Amino acid sequence: MEHRTHPTVDDIYMALSPGIPTLSKTTVYNTLKLLSEHGAAHTLTIDERNICYDANVSPHAHFLCKCCGKIYDMEVGEFVSKPSESLEGHKICEIHHYYKGICKQCAQEERLDNITTIN
Ligand SMILES: [Zn+2]
Ligand SMILES: [Zn+2]
User: Fold this and answer.
1) Looking at domain 1-57, which CATH architecture does it have?
2) Residues 37-46 pLDDT 10s
Protein backbone atom coordinates (compact mmCIF):
# COMPACT_ATOMS: atom_id res chain seq x y z
CA MET A 1 0.00 0.00 0.00
CA GLU A 2 2.87 2.39 0.71
CA HIS A 3 4.19 1.76 -2.74
CA ARG A 4 2.81 4.10 -5.31
CA THR A 5 3.27 1.62 -8.09
CA HIS A 6 0.98 -0.68 -10.03
CA PRO A 7 1.98 -4.19 -9.05
CA THR A 8 0.64 -7.37 -10.57
CA VAL A 9 -0.29 -10.40 -8.45
CA ASP A 10 3.12 -11.85 -9.34
CA ASP A 11 4.93 -8.69 -8.22
CA ILE A 12 3.19 -8.71 -4.85
CA TYR A 13 3.70 -12.43 -4.41
CA MET A 14 7.41 -12.15 -5.19
CA ALA A 15 7.79 -9.21 -2.80
CA LEU A 16 5.95 -10.83 0.11
CA SER A 17 6.72 -14.54 -0.19
CA PRO A 18 10.27 -14.42 1.32
CA GLY A 19 8.75 -13.07 4.54
CA ILE A 20 5.59 -15.21 4.45
CA PRO A 21 6.49 -18.77 3.41
CA THR A 22 2.86 -19.96 3.63
CA LEU A 23 1.68 -17.30 1.18
CA SER A 24 0.15 -18.54 -2.06
CA LYS A 25 -0.64 -16.63 -5.22
CA THR A 26 -4.31 -17.46 -4.69
CA THR A 27 -4.21 -15.72 -1.30
CA VAL A 28 -2.65 -12.64 -2.89
CA TYR A 29 -5.23 -12.68 -5.67
CA ASN A 30 -8.17 -13.15 -3.27
CA THR A 31 -6.93 -10.42 -0.95
CA LEU A 32 -6.57 -7.99 -3.84
CA LYS A 33 -10.00 -8.92 -5.12
CA LEU A 34 -11.45 -8.23 -1.68
CA LEU A 35 -9.60 -4.89 -1.43
CA SER A 36 -10.91 -3.75 -4.78
CA GLU A 37 -14.44 -4.89 -3.93
CA HIS A 38 -14.26 -2.69 -0.85
CA GLY A 39 -12.85 0.21 -2.83
CA ALA A 40 -9.45 0.06 -1.10
CA ALA A 41 -7.64 -0.74 -4.33
CA HIS A 42 -8.33 -0.46 -8.01
CA THR A 43 -7.93 -3.16 -10.58
CA LEU A 44 -6.24 -1.93 -13.72
CA THR A 45 -6.83 -3.73 -16.97
CA ILE A 46 -4.78 -1.30 -19.06
CA ASP A 47 -2.32 -4.07 -19.90
CA GLU A 48 -4.43 -6.94 -21.21
CA ARG A 49 -1.69 -9.50 -20.44
CA ASN A 50 -1.26 -8.45 -16.81
CA ILE A 51 -3.87 -7.21 -14.38
CA CYS A 52 -2.35 -4.60 -12.08
CA TYR A 53 -3.49 -3.22 -8.78
CA ASP A 54 -3.43 0.35 -7.58
CA ALA A 55 -3.68 1.43 -3.94
CA ASN A 56 -4.22 5.01 -5.06
CA VAL A 57 -8.00 5.13 -5.41
CA SER A 58 -8.25 8.86 -5.97
CA PRO A 59 -9.28 9.65 -9.55
CA HIS A 60 -6.26 9.61 -11.80
CA ALA A 61 -5.47 8.47 -15.29
CA HIS A 62 -2.94 5.86 -16.34
CA PHE A 63 -0.50 5.82 -19.17
CA LEU A 64 0.93 2.52 -20.38
CA CYS A 65 4.14 2.62 -22.36
CA LYS A 66 3.91 0.07 -25.18
CA CYS A 67 7.68 0.04 -25.30
CA CYS A 68 8.82 -0.66 -21.70
CA GLY A 69 5.47 -1.67 -20.19
CA LYS A 70 5.72 0.87 -17.40
CA ILE A 71 2.49 2.36 -16.06
CA TYR A 72 2.52 6.03 -15.14
CA ASP A 73 0.03 7.93 -13.03
CA MET A 74 -1.39 10.94 -14.80
CA GLU A 75 -3.58 13.86 -13.85
CA VAL A 76 -7.14 13.57 -15.06
CA GLY A 77 -8.64 16.31 -17.12
CA GLU A 78 -11.36 18.58 -15.82
CA PHE A 79 -14.08 16.85 -17.81
CA VAL A 80 -14.06 13.93 -15.35
CA SER A 81 -16.53 13.95 -12.51
CA LYS A 82 -15.66 12.54 -9.11
CA PRO A 83 -16.64 9.02 -7.99
CA SER A 84 -20.00 8.83 -6.15
CA GLU A 85 -21.32 11.57 -8.39
CA SER A 86 -23.95 10.48 -10.79
CA LEU A 87 -23.52 10.78 -14.50
CA GLU A 88 -26.66 10.75 -16.63
CA GLY A 89 -28.43 8.97 -13.78
CA HIS A 90 -25.72 6.33 -13.30
CA LYS A 91 -23.85 6.26 -10.02
CA ILE A 92 -20.10 6.30 -10.64
CA CYS A 93 -17.95 4.17 -8.32
CA GLU A 94 -14.75 3.97 -10.29
CA ILE A 95 -13.26 5.95 -13.11
CA HIS A 96 -10.63 4.48 -15.37
CA HIS A 97 -8.74 6.53 -17.86
CA TYR A 98 -6.21 4.69 -19.92
CA TYR A 99 -3.71 6.19 -22.28
CA LYS A 100 -1.25 4.12 -24.25
CA GLY A 101 1.79 5.13 -26.19
CA ILE A 102 5.52 5.63 -25.86
CA CYS A 103 6.72 7.17 -22.61
CA LYS A 104 9.06 10.15 -22.61
CA GLN A 105 11.96 7.99 -21.47
CA CYS A 106 11.53 5.50 -24.32
CA ALA A 107 10.90 8.30 -26.81
CA GLN A 108 14.18 9.85 -25.76
CA GLU A 109 16.06 6.57 -26.14
CA GLU A 110 14.43 6.02 -29.50
CA ARG A 111 15.60 9.41 -30.62
CA LEU A 112 19.12 8.59 -29.46
CA ASP A 113 18.92 5.29 -31.36
CA ASN A 114 17.88 7.12 -34.51
CA ILE A 115 20.80 9.51 -34.19
CA THR A 116 23.21 6.58 -33.88
CA THR A 117 21.65 4.89 -36.89
CA ILE A 118 22.00 8.03 -39.00
CA ASN A 119 25.65 8.38 -37.99
ZN1 LIG B 1 8.65 3.41 -21.90
ZN1 LIG C 1 -2.24 4.69 -10.49
Assistant:
1) Orthogonal Bundle (1.10)
2) 998 998 999 9
Residue 79 CA to ligand 2 center (angstroms) comes to 18
Same fold, 1-57 and 59-119: no
Strands 61-65 and 97-101 turn out to be parallel
**Ligand of minimum distance to the alpha carbon of 57:** 2
Q: Which fold has domain 59-119?
A: Dna Ligase; domain 1 (3.30.1490)
Q: How far is the CA of 6 from the centre of ligand 1 (A)?
A: 15
Does the pTM exceed 0.85?
no
